[in-house]
Amino acid sequence: MPAEIINGKKISDDIKSELKAEIDKLKNQGIVPGLAAVLVGDNPASALYVKMKARACEKIGIYSEVIKRDNSSTHQQMVELVNELNQRQDIDGILVQSPLPDHIDEPGITFLIDPKKDVDGFHPVNQGLLLAGRPQFEPATPMGIVEILERSGHNPSGKNVVILGRGFLVGRPLSVMLSTKTKRTNATVTICHTGTPNISDFTKKADIIVAAMGKALFLKGDMIKPGAVIIDVGTNQIDDPGHPKGKRLVGDVDFDSVKDIAGAITPVPGGVGPMTIAAILKNTVKACKTRHDLI
Q1: Could you list the active site residues?
Q2: Contacts of 231 (CB under 8 A, 6+ apart)
Q3: What is the CATH number of the domain that holds 253?
Q4: Total-model pTM
Q5: Domain range spanning residue 213?
Q6: pLDDT tens string for the chain (295 positions)?
Q7: What is the CATH number of the domain that holds 46?
Q8: 72 partner at 20 to 30 Å CA-CA among 49, 109, 155, 232?
C-alpha cells in the first residue's frame, strides 16, 4: 500500500490561520508584529526564500521588511545594521539570511542579534535554553518537523527515531527537541552521520527517520522497515535531461523506492519547507507577545 503523503503546505496553512487570529487580536490592541530579513548578495535561492517569508508575513498581517545589501557590504556595516535592528521597536524578529559572503563573519553576526529577536533560534543563548529544556525560540526547521509529526498524527513519543545528519541547523537541535520529555516528543533518538558504519542497521529499526544529510536520494527503500514514517529535510538539485530545465529538485530520500514501503512520507517540495516558514512566523508572533508582556 502506498505511503501516506504528509502535506506540509496544508499543515503550514493551518498554522498560519491560527496565527492570523492571534495577530488580529494583537492589532485590536494597537500591536503589529514585525519581522526584518537581511539579504546580502545575489544568491537566487536565498532571494527566493526571503521573498516567500515576506509574502507569508503579508498574508497573515505581520509587518515585513526586507533589507538588501550587495556583496561589497563589510562586516562592520553588518554589525551596525544588526545593532540598529536590535533597537527598533517596530521589529520583533530579525533574520540574517545564510549564507553570507565569505568576508563577513557569519557566526559573529548571528551572535550580535538580540536573543529576544532571534526567531531563527540560532543564537547561543537560545541554543543553551533549548539544551536546558527551557526554550525561548526553537530553531525553525526542527520546530517545523515536530509540528508536522504531531499534526499529521505521528507523535514520536515512545518511538525509535533516527536522524540522518548532525548539522547545527537541523540534526543536533532536533535530537535535543525530540528526546525532551513532553507530550509531543519524548522519543528515543539516534543520530547517524558520516562516521556511522552500516547506517542501514539503524534505519531498519527506526519508527521515524529524519533525513537531513544534504545528500541527494541517500535513503533507499531497502534501508527502512515497513510502515516507517519518513521526514525528508533535503533540498538538492540533480541533473535530469528529461526535465524542461535540465535539473530537478529532490530530497535526501529516494522517494520512488521508499513510497511503497513507508507508512508515511513528506514530499520534496511541499513537505518540511513550508513548515520552516510557518515556524518563523510563529516565533515572530511569540517574540511580539513576549515584548508586550502578553505571555
Answers
A1: 53, 97, 120
A2: 6, 145, 148, 149, 208, 209, 210, 211, 265, 266, 271, 272
A3: 3.40.50.720
A4: 0.94
A5: 140-274
A6: 789 999 999 999 999 999 999 999 999 999 999 999 999 998 888 898 999 999 999 999 999 999 999 999 999 999 999 999 999 999 999 999 999 999 999 999 999 999 999 999 999 999 999 999 999 999 999 999 999 999 999 999 999 999 999 999 999 999 999 999 999 999 999 999 999 999 999 999 999 999 999 999 999 999 999 999 999 999 888 887 878 888 888 999 999 999 999 999 999 999 999 999 999 999 999 999 999 999 8
A7: 3.40.50.10860
A8: 49
